[in-house]
Amino acid sequence: MSDHVTIYDIAKAVGTSTATISKALNGRHDVSETLRNRVIEVAARMGYRPNVHARGLKMKQSWLVGIVYGEGEENALEHPLFLPIMNAFKTSMEESGYELLFLSQHSRFVGDNLLSHASSRQVDGLLLMNIAKQALDPFLAASKSIPMVSCDAIVPSLTSVLTDNADASAKAVRYLYDAGHRKIAHIGGPSNPLAVSGDERAAGYHKAMQDLNLRNDAWEIRAEGWTPEDGRKAFLELITRCPDITAVYCAADFYVMGLLQVCRERHISIPEDLSVIGFDDVQWTGFVSPGFSTFRQDKQRLGSVAAQKLLEAIHGESEESVIRIPAELIVRGSCKTMHATEVQV
Amino acid sequence: MSDHVTIYDIAKAVGTSTATISKALNGRHDVSETLRNRVIEVAARMGYRPNVHARGLKMKQSWLVGIVYGEGEENALEHPLFLPIMNAFKTSMEESGYELLFLSQHSRFVGDNLLSHASSRQVDGLLLMNIAKQALDPFLAASKSIPMVSCDAIVPSLTSVLTDNADASAKAVRYLYDAGHRKIAHIGGPSNPLAVSGDERAAGYHKAMQDLNLRNDAWEIRAEGWTPEDGRKAFLELITRCPDITAVYCAADFYVMGLLQVCRERHISIPEDLSVIGFDDVQWTGFVSPGFSTFRQDKQRLGSVAAQKLLEAIHGESEESVIRIPAELIVRGSCKTMHATEVQV
DNA sequence: CTGTTAGCGCTTTCAT
DNA sequence: ATGAAAGCGCTAACAG
User: Fold this and answer.
1) Residue A26 Cβ under 7 A from any strand C atom
2) A299-314 and A82-95 are packed helices; what angle lies between their axes, rounded to 10 degrees?
């Protein structure tokens, strides 16, 4: 680095003291207008950049926000929603002057862990994404001293931002019902104490079916993981058990991939024989054959709301809460609308 | 933050000076074994964490590595290879004690830009990914004072790590040739001065065809972007122009998505009527119908080699170079092996 | 081997 | 309105 311009250099150039430079640059009101302008002008001309370390050392603040992700999982960063959400989060935080730091577990220091890393960097806040239950406790313990929000998972005692899964499930069932379907199955995601999407979507489905007096436990199945393979297995079990279902609402687009594979093998055609709705609207959803309907999570808002909440927390205006972002049903050609005569009563 | 344990506290607890504490903790050799152990033990017990700012201020070093990507493009982070590569890079850097910082363009300061951000944070190195040509100059100017490497693009005067595209293309053509194909087409990526994949894959294909005396310019087409839609358009033009091709080597899996869509519409069956090879092996490649053969870029190595090179550069052992990581052809069912009788001479 | 001292660049009382 | 001086936590001479 050759940043070497310091406020001391500017002070010399302007012919004043470092204190005044500091004040001028930070928009304090106890500096004359003229001097301030002059300082700013000279600083710009000299290519001055405040040294964040000196600043952080003095102010005990870093303008850094840590992001903690999928503690303990490998390939954790490859979650399809992670990137867009983080991107939105990043943009919002940057508008407020913060930069993003990936916190690590490694360290050259004694008895180290991710959280102590955070404190050693004096990060001003933390975004927790998809963090594992067993890794949570230390964070909770620290949550009094460092602001944090959770995204995509409900972490008790933390503000959590996530998709309105129950609402989406209700919409899915309603949509299929309105299209004439009655035997509507659900392939749900795995249960997880923090990452509640699997549970919430399943519960939402369950309730919606119940409300319509359509509920049949045999139509509900939960996949073991979130992969296409898991979806494939679940669907195989499902159609073996209930070959007469006319629609399947899947908690993940990946499940639909597995399902489609089975359908091709067994010559089940979509949407003629089976209607399908997925969840996530990942990049390729529109290009598989057949293109299928799915819920688009609002990654943009998920990320920017998380950012907004974290900023509030940093400013001490925090209030623990669970914030829901609605998902939108993207309609493609995977659902059949039945004729009145086909609808079973 | 409540990190408040400083070396001063430890000094008091141990009954020695801060200098000694510092030396002990940093493994200097001018501290007695006994004292060192005692210091380390006490530090651990007290939950000491070095303050990175104080350290950085003194040592002009931050243990931070900046990552710069897709300058100017929106949704740049959603490039399918970005995340896995960065993940591998991150892991390697962390093993050496570095953490990753996303540099931003925004700032509250005068005449600011991303690079001055880097200097104000005193980042120890920079990883450039997918950076646009027009945004490059300032980086190059700074590359003398701050170590940087480029990944997935060739940046002149910087060590660049990328997939061996020419080699992959040669393999693709060879593979199809050995399977009996002669009329092998190529849908290439767009030309880009830095992100050379499109050009390199096309050139590699061109040369391989030439070497086999198979070259036919009509079989070469370049897509306008990297999306399925671009691939679709290119393929439409291609089969209109040369309906008799028996194989297509695509520079991107996304192109294959577009191609498959067209094939379904026109009842071109794969691999019977047309053999296909893609590029990238993105997550879903094995689950579309039909699963197709494609080149898997070694994201793991791409990232870790980039990290290794950056570390070398940081340690001053750098030597500008272009490093190639081979891609592996993943064979699935999208290529037909012709019978000897079918092979055209 | 250990301690004293002087800063790294910045902000912040507190005088002036 | 401006400046002198102290100090954030740490490391690196330099003495002892």
Assistant:
1) yes
2) 40
Residue B3 confidence class, pLDDT cut points 50, 70, 90:
low
Does B114 have pLDDT greater than 80? Answer: no
CA A256, CA A294: separation in Å to the nearest integer? 10
Reported as half-sphere exposure (CB side, CA atoms, 13 A), residue B130 has a value of 17
- Joined together, the tokens standing for residue B305 give 């080699």
pLDDT digits (tens, 9 = 90+) for B41-53: 888 888 888 899 9
Query: Taking CB atoms and an 8 Å limit, are A57 and B49 in contact across chains?
Result: no
Residue type, B315: H
Contacts of B121 in chain A (CB under 8 A): 52, 99
The percent of residues in chain A predicted with pLDDT above 70, rounded, is 91
Which of B25, B53, B107 minimises the CB distance to A97? B107
Question: How close does chain A come to B140, measured CA to CA in Å?
Answer: 14
Q: What is the pTM of this model?
A: 0.87
The answer to whether residue A72 scores a pLDDT higher than 50 is no
DSSP B88-123: HHHHHHHHTT-EEEE--S--SSTT--HHHHHHHTT-
**Contact yes or no for A97 and B110 at CB 8 A:** no
Mean pLDDT for chain A overall: 88
Distance from CA of A341 to the nearest CA of B (A): 31
CA gyration radius, chain A: 26
Contacts of A57 in chain B (CB under 8 A): 51, 53-54, 57
Contact assessment for residue B75 and residue B83, using Cβ atoms and an 8 Å cutoff: no
Token pair of B234, please? 């290119």
Residue pair B239/B260 in contact by the 8 Å Cβ criterion: no
CA→C1' distance for B14 and D15 (Å): 22
Instruction: Look at A82 and A343; give whichever has higher pLDDT.
Output: A82
CB B295 within 8 A of CB B329: yes
- The pairing of beta strand B322-325 with beta strand B293-296: unpaired
Alpha helices for B121-164 (secondary structure H) = 137-142
Query: What gap in Å lies between CA B33 and CA B47, rounded to an integer?
Result: 21
Shortest distance between the Cα of A119 and any Cα of chain B, in A, equals: 6
Task: Using the CB atoms, write b or e for A249-275: b if 16+ within 10 Å.
Answer: bbbbbbbbbbbbbbbeeeebebbeebb
pLDDT at A108: 46
Cβ contacts from A onto B, under 8 A: 184
Neighbours of B241 (CB within 10 A): 12
3-state secondary structure of B159: strand
A77: pLDDT strictly greater than 70: no
Which pairs count as long-range contacts for A24-31, CB under 8 Å and 24+ apart, including other chains? A25/A50
Q: Look up the protein residue whose alpha carbon has the minimum distance to the C1' of D7.
A: A58
For residues A162 and A102, the answer to whether their CB atoms sit within 8 Å is no
Q: Inter-chain contact A122–B264, Cβ cutoff 8 Å?
A: no
- Optimal mutation site among A107, A113, A120, interface B, most CBs of chain B within 10 A: A120
Answer yes or no: do B104 and A90 touch at CB < 8 A.
Answer: yes
Q: Which residues, at least 6 apart from A259, have a Cβ–Cβ distance to it below 8 Å?
A: A187, A231, A232, A235, A248, A250, A276
| CB–CB contact A119 B1 (8 Å) | yes
Q: How far apart are CA B283 and CA A280, in angstroms?
A: 15
A56: contact with B, CB 8 A cutoff:
yes
Whether B145 has its CB under 8 Å from any CB of chain A: the answer is: yes
- pLDDT value of position A320: 87
DSSP A228-293: HHHHHHHHHHHHHH-TT--EEEES-HHHHHHHHHHHHHHT--TTTT-EEEEEE--TTTTTSSS--E
